[in-house]
Predict the structure of Sialate O-acetylesterase.
Amino acid sequence: MPSRILKSWFLSLLLALIISTSVAQTKIKVACMGNSITEGYGVKDGRTYPVQLQELLGGTYDVRNYGLGGRTLLKKGDRPYWKEAKYQEALQWQPNVVIIKLGTNDSKPQNWKYKADFKKDYVAFVKSFKKLPSHPKVYICKPMPAYRANFGINPEVIKNEILPLVEAIARKTHAQVIDLYTPLLGHDDLAPDGIHPTAEGDAILAQEVYKAIK
């Protein structure tokens, strides 16, 4: 191969590599923080809501799932998200958008006895992201309905206590609320165990989050 052609080929390859790297670096990073509903407990074919959100947002976004089953927002809860490596990973990733969907496990009796700390802990969680150099936009989600008591989760606590607190926390932190409770009312069929949505239920979650971001 003549040196001129080889040089041209090398420059084209280098340019393509630079463009590819540039595109990867400019993607809008979306961190989905949450519990087993975000993680995708029981969802077939990996069709979690973050996966479906990625499809809706397209290639200019990079959506990552930081969901961990059983975790609480409460620092004194039985399994606080605060203590997990994934929390630190999410902070270090420097996301541009943060979706927080926590609170379901906090409704359990052993956790909700610390309900006086819920607002304070949630505000601190939001602020831990807002103070990042990436200055992400933070969304906090009203938890989806618990259709029946299961795994110790209390549907009435979610409905009557956690939902109003989410509104108060949003006002305090100037975060935007995403209502994942109302769109899933009456969709008991989309959560066979009363708590965790199917892929079809996750499609509704993804759509609501997508509408908020876009």
Summary: Residues 3-25 form the longest helix (23 residues). Strands lie at 28-34, 61-67, 97-101, 137-142, 176-179. Confidence is low (pLDDT under 50) at residues 18-23. The longest strand covers residues 28-34.
